[in-house]
Design brief:
The protein is α+β, with helices and mostly antiparallel strands. Helix content is about 20%, strand content about 35%.
């Protein structure tokens, strides 16, 4: 860089005069906007708001500052070009030192570097240009050194990097943590033919609505917290638990194998593990996503790469196996196949995402043969569910195109509501609060819509009751209780009036997943940070009763309560708590 060139500025003013200081007004305003957007995004509820504050606004600010800098006639042309090239070089340095998931830090470097430049040019305004230039360059290098010294360990639910210093011990990969332990022997178990009243046989429970009935327990956790029965390491994955009698089942990634695992409820000991040579890796978290489904002594599972299986639940023996990619033209989504199998009559039904009439696939329960295919949805982080609307049992699936309904036996399309999304996938299950209504939630700017479903002499009518942009659930499912919906607008807990769609109250940034304890009128929340909180399900406002730290690490898996025990897990560990059941 060189000294200021008077010939490039017709109204050249001495350093430190008001004329020169005014030249910093534009970048200062941009930096203030950028800072406000970042602060807002860090407190924001949704991924969409977070992306605006952390990614879009800083990029716009950089473009604005680059234009301002290149047109700054009070600075020599060589300094302008040299400064811009230095800025680009420092960004490239951060980029080459952070690959894979760490590349998100490059965007994080943008606001830090732009703020550093403007701040140091401002505080050195009274100095000679040679000193200002040197100090500002040194500050830019120091800022870059800070970011290159960081290591990205994970990505949070709001897409922000979770970082630590490069010289600290990196976290042990979850599947490596499992592999470090002695292999456990395979043991056959005895299971009932059908699930019982206290069991949890499939994803989100019997109606896939995360609603637990006929259970009450003590909430005096401050003086008498739930007793921890066991805690153990598990493999990667976002699967939840299926609990049948004395045993529970889940899916994990263990090295290069995707594994369905059976554990003993009382001890956490592994009883058997059924592996397949499949591995799925993704920046937000590797491993399987779906939850096993139990039916008449068998487990039905879907892996992240699309392998659908029937297993003998007593020993993990494979009964049949299908590859969803071969049965349809579906490709592995960027987030992996995530549909938990649904058992209806003598079929197992999953979402595939082939828009050419094979969005939903029904397999024969005993043989695994394809019974029917239907639907046009291309992508979604959802599972098929069975509900009764207008007195007709039907299959519901929400996806990128909206929501569709199918006849269970044949796959015939009964009705659909088209509401297209192209960016954020639909991740939450449809909610059916009554016999004529269904709720479909969408992340990003779309929000949530309540539909009225009517059937007159076989003619289906779908009408919109209301749509709200104030409730934009991402991957956090929601529940229904006494004419109100409780769920997450991104990470922030909310209460929505079911009849109007109006927001009743807006609470804290819990994130994570939610379970309704119906007989107690309580919400159990397993937060993204592994905390368990109990709150009253009331429109009067957020009221937390008690909470405990349950588990370490990023936690997105759905919690389960079965037979008086609370089960939680993530990609690091699983833990079982005994609740003080009162009835």
């Amino acid at each position: 860089m060189s000294e200021i060139n008077p010939q490039e500025n017709e109204a050249q003013a001495p350093e430190g005069t008001p004329t020169v200081k005014l030249k910093l007004v534009t970048p200062m305003v941009l930096i203030l906007i950028q800072t406000a957007a970042i602060v807002y995004s860090l407190r924001a509820a949704t991924v969409f708001q977070n992306a605006i504050g952390l990614y879009i606004v800083p990029i716009v600010v950089v473009i604005g500052l680059a234009i301002w800098w290149l047109r700054a006639k009070h600075v020599s042309k060589r300094d302008r070009i040299g400064g811009l090239l230095l800025f680009i070089a420092l960004l490239l340095l951060v980029a080459v030192t952070h690959t894979g998931v760490g590349s998100r830090l490059v965007v994080g470097t943008l606001p830090a570097l732009t703020t550093t430049i403007v701040v140091f040019l401002s505080i050195t305004a009274s100095m000679a240009w040679s000193s200002r230039r040197l100090i500002t360059i040194a500050a830019m290098v120091a800022c870059t050194a800070y970011f290159t010294a960081l290591r990205v360990d994970d990505i949070g639910g709001n897409l922000t990097p979770i970082v630590s210093w490069r010289w600290t011990e990196p976290p042990v990969p979850a599947d490596a943590a499992w592999a470090s332990e002695t292999q456990e022997p395979t043991r056959s178990i005895t299971l009932p033919a059908q699930s019982g009243p206290g069991d949890w046989a499939e994803f989100r429970g019997g109606n896939r609505d995360s609603r637990l009935s006929d259970v009450t327990f003590s909430t005096d956790w401050d003086s008498d917290p739930p007793k921890e029965l066991w805690r153990r390491k598990v493999g990667l994955g976002w699967s939840s638990f299926t609990v049948i009698g004395a045993y529970l089942f889940t899916q994990e990634q263990r090295g290069q194998d995707e594994v369905v695992v059976c554990y003993e409820v009382a001890t956490g000991n592994q009883m058997w593990a059924s592996p397949i040579s499949e591995r799925f890796d993704e920046a937000m978290g590797s491993g399987p996503r779906a939850t096993p489904t139990f039916h008449e002594g068998s487990l039905y599972t879907m892996g992240a790469t699309g392998i659908v299986q029937a297993l003998n639940a007593s020993n993990g023996e494979t009964l049949w196996q299908r590859d969803l990619k071969k049965d349809t033209n579906a490709k592995i989504p960027v987030w992996g196949f995530s549909s938990s199998p649904l058992i209806v009559n003598d079929m197992v039904i999953v979402f595939a995402g082939d828009p050419n009439g094979k969005s939903v696939v029904a397999y024969d329960l005993k043989s695994g043969d394809v019974r029917w295919t239907s639907g046009e949805g291309k992508h979604g982080y959802v599972s098929v569910q069975l509900n009764t609307l207008a007195d007709v049992p039907q299959l519901l699936i929400s996806s990128d195109i909206g929501i569709q309904s199918f006849a269970p036996d044949t796959g015939e399309k009964l009705w659909e509501h088209l509401w297209q999304v192209s960016t954020n996938p639909r991740c939450v299950q449809p909610m059916v609060p009554d016999g004529n209504s269904v709720l479909i939630g969408t992340a990003g700017g779309k929000g949530t819509r309540k539909l009225r479903i009517e059937n007159e002499n076989g003619q289906w009518t779908v009408s919109e009751d209301w749509t709200t942009r104030k409730f934009k659930p991402y991957f956090n499912d929601f529940v229904f209780y006494e004419d109100h919906f409780y769920g997450f607008d991104g990470k922030r807990l909310m209460c929505i009036d079911a009849s109007t769609g109006e927001r009743v109250w807006r609470g804290s940034n819990y994130g994570g997943q939610i379970l309704l304890i119906e007989d107690m009128g309580l919400l159990l929340i397993l937060s993204e940070k592994g905390n368990i909180a109990l709150l009253k399900a009331t429109p009067e406002g957020q009221e937390e009763i008690t909470s405990i730290k349950a588990i370490e690490g990023k936690t997105w898996n759905h919690p389960v309560i079965a037979d008086g025990k609370l089960f939680v897990r993530n990609s690091l560990e699983a833990v079982c708590y005994e609740l003080d059941v009162t009835s």
